[in-house]
């Protein structure tokens, strides 16, 4: 009955019924600045801004809930939430999640050790045979790392914890995204400045929001994000966000002995 009343009002007075805003809730990792972290009780970071603005561009009101990355992926895998970010698309994730076409961003994972003599050539994952290598629990590092049994994988609860283990000599190497490394060394300068050296690259890969095939909004949310990202790229707004977060140029550091 109410629907007919609204339609009659529209017909007689030319007033359309108000459109209900589309809403969506996503999970976001809480400790991966400058891409995504919880700060002052709110999600903040480059990826957070990209996701929010992409959905806004297509009329979707998105709410973000911060949580540890391992939990973020778990709640999406079992359909409790529609999506989680930021994730690699590799053999360990494509079995359980849906992925949009346009990535949120592209980032590289550096290989770091304690500062020492410069190397003649950069290290790769294959160079780590027999070494103790620090990884962060719940993170994915690409197929070459995930499938390798040549080196000893030692897991920590956070990237910061891995850096402290490396500084203490409890690890030979740490694999870490270069922007995250820059941030951690910069924000703990008294503890870390000059202590570490980038000696290679493990992988350079795009990162995504992973969506749940089990959640009723999963596929729809994926399609809406792709549409919104297309708007950001066409309009130049994506580039503006890169510049705001100083992502318009390559991260400093290199295999040849740069000290973060």
From TrEMBL:
Coiled coil: none annotated. Pfam families: SBP_bac_3 (PF00497). Keywords: Signal. Residues 1-21 form the signal peptide. Gene3D superfamilies: Periplasmic binding protein-like II. Residues 24-248 form the Solute-binding protein family 3/N-terminal domain. This is ABC-type amino acid transport/signal transduction system, periplasmic component/domain.
């Amino acid at each position: 009955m109410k629907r007919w009343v609204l339609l009659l009002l529209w017909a007689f007075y030319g007033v359309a019924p108000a459109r209900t805003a589309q809403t969506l809730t996503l999970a976001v990792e809480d400790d991966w600045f400058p891409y995504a972290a919880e700060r002052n009780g709110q999600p903040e970071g480059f990826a957070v801004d990209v996701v929010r603005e992409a959905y806004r561009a297509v009329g979707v009101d998105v709410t973000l809930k911060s949580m540890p990355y391992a939990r973020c992926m778990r709640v999406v895998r079992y359909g409790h939430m529609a999506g989680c970010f930021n994730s690699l698309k590799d053999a360990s994730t494509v079995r359980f999640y849906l992925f949009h076409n346009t990535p949120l961003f592209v980032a590289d994972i550096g290989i770091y050790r304690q500062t020492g003599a410069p190397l003649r050539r950069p290290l790769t994952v294959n160079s780590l045979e027999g070494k103790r290598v620090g990884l962060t629990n719940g993170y994915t590092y690409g197929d070459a790392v995930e499938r390798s049994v040549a080196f000893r994988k030692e897991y920590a609860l956070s990237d910061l914890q891995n850096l402290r283990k490396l500084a203490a000599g409890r690890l030979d190497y740490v694999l870490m995204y270069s922007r995250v490394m820059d941030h951690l060394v910069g924000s703990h300068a008294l503890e870390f400045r000059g202590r570490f050296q980038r000696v290679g690259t493990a992988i350079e890969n795009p990162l995504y929001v992973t969506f749940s095939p089990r959640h009723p909004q999963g596929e729809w949310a994926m399609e809406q994000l792709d549409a919104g990202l297309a708007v950001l790229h066409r309009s130049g707004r994506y580039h503006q966000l890169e510049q705001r977060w100083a992502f318009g140029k390559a991260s400093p550091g290199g295999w040849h002995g740069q000290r973060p």
